[in-house]
């Protein structure tokens, strides 16, 4: 075996994957298992690494479903609505991921004692509907 082949630099399975793309050589369930350990941001980054990884990640609803259900703990109404409207797990997750992060910070009281709007961190705001702001206000009133 030559050095290039040992390093995985020749195409995998007749060029199906890119240079060094070991994922395309694995059965889909094994590839999916490997990617299932990634957080949402890492999964998105891995998806744009190469065509082989993109194909595996994009075709696995299970990967996106897992993360989407975690976001649902904070954004149940939004997730249920998107799924009811026929959005895939991936699109539903991408539509609600950052909103869930910001909403969780607001609900946890992170911004309860901010003296002015200029004291808020840049990423503390996200377009949210009136129902979401109502949930945040109720949480503030209960503190």
UniProtKB/TrEMBL annotation:
Pathway: Protein modification; protein ubiquitination. One of its GO terms (cellular component) is SCF ubiquitin ligase complex. Gene3D superfamilies: 1.20.1280.50. Residues 20-67 form the F-box domain. InterPro entries: F-box-like_dom_sf, F-box_dom. It comes from the Eukaryota. Keywords: Ubl conjugation pathway. GO terms for biological process: protein ubiquitination; SCF-dependent proteasomal ubiquitin-dependent protein catabolic process. PANTHER family: F-BOX ONLY PROTEIN 48, F-BOX ONLY PROTEIN 48-RELATED. This is F-box protein 48. The lineage of its organism: Eukaryota, Metazoa, Chordata, Craniata, Vertebrata.
